[in-house]
Design brief:
Elements lengths: L3 E8 L5 E12 L5 E10 L1 H22 L6 E2 L3 E8 L7 E8 L2 E9 L4 H22 L7 H19 L3 E9 L4 E7 L4 E4 L6 E4 L16 E5 L5 E5 L1 H4 L10 H11 L5 H16 L8 E8 L1
Antiparallel strand pairs: 1-2, 2-3, 4-5, 5-14, 6-7, 7-8, 8-9, 9-12, 10-11, 10-13, 13-14
Length: 299
């Protein structure tokens, strides 16, 4: 005598299955006696398939995020933290940081598009980079930032060319003993350097094509000396190209002002401040691209 709702897996005459939602409701007469049931059948196969796909994408998102650093890197000389916010379930942004001998290496990258294909290519790029770093730990002399980009470009070229995708990447190495920062760029956004005793930002850039265009690419490498209190910000274009309700871009000048305004904070807190500034700027407008940021701060 009660309402009932159940999901049934039924089969058509040709044997193909479909999901059927059945709603049963009791019908009573004027005296309250149960006389009939009304059953409503609805084919919900497409809805069920969409729910399963969303569940699979959520699993893929959790796997992808698990490949990123779990916590900030804190050493006596430097601290590094990062964040990645995919605009969808999966995205094409990637960052990482780790110690390599007497240096701290930091990489940030962005695959064209933010779908499953982009996520798969980014996972391959991460695996390739990790394999090269493992060779260094096994006794081989560490590569320079420019050489690492050259190796990754050559190893990933065929796969990128076959998928019509490309990767922008910025790679830097910070030498703990000398405070020398070396960097190379594969068509990515320039890093921003905020000095402790300066009110502006210094743009860090070097010549280099995006990964996947040519098999052989000579990447330029530059360097700069850092001092105690200096902060370096790496980011993807989802940050600077975020727009407000009037269609105005957040832009590099606004990002630079926010960086210098909150430079006194530790890297993780600094990133949160930058995200607060970004959300306040965009207000109710939905983000259109993945957002990733990494901050290195000299202690």
């Amino acid at each position: 005598g009660r309402d009932c709702e159940v999901m049934l897996k039924n089969y058509r005459k040709d044997g193909t299955p479909f999901w059927n939602e059945l709603l049963l409701s009791p019908v009573r007469d004027e005296s309250g006696k149960l006389t009939h049931y009304i059953g409503i059948h609805t084919d919900v196969t497409e809805r069920r398939r969409a729910e399963e796909q969303r569940h699979e994408l959520e699993i893929a998102k959790q796997i992808q995020l698990s490949l990123l650093p779990k916590k900030p890197l804190r050493l006596e000389e430097v601290e590094v933290a990062g964040v990645c916010l995919p605009v969808g379930h999966v995205g094409g942004d990637y960052f990482d940081y780790f110690t390599a001998g007497d240096s701290v290496d930091i990489v940030i990258a962005d695959v064209s598009g933010h779908n499953v294909g982009a996520a798969l290519i980014m996972t391959e790029a991460r695996s390739t980079l990790k394999a090269e770093m493992r060779k260094t730990r096994n006794g081989r002399a560490p590569h320079s930032a420019a050489r690492i980009l050259g190796i990754l470009n050559e190893l990933l070229y065929e796969d990128l060319a076959g998928t019509d995708l490309f990767i922008t990447m910025f790679y830097l190495k910070y030498e703990l003993r000398t405070r020398r920062l070396s960097y190379a760029n594969a068509g990515h956004n320039c890093a921003l350097l905020a000095r402790l005793d300066d009110t502006g930002c210094e743009s860090l850039d070097a010549e280099g094509l995006i990964l996947g265009v040519n098999r052989k690419v000579a990447f330029e490498e530059k360097s700069v000396m850092l001092r105690k209190g200096d902060a370096v910000l790496l980011y993807t274009d989802g940050v600077t190209e975020a727009r407000n309700e009037q269609g105005e871009f957040f832009g590099i000048p606004r990002l630079c002002r926010a960086l210098t305004a909150h430079q006194q904070h530790a890297p993780r807190a600094l990133i949160e401040k930058l995200l607060d500034e970004l959300r306040a700027f965009c207000r109710n407008r939905r983000l259109e691209d993945d957002i990733s940021m990494v901050v290195l701060k000299v202690l």
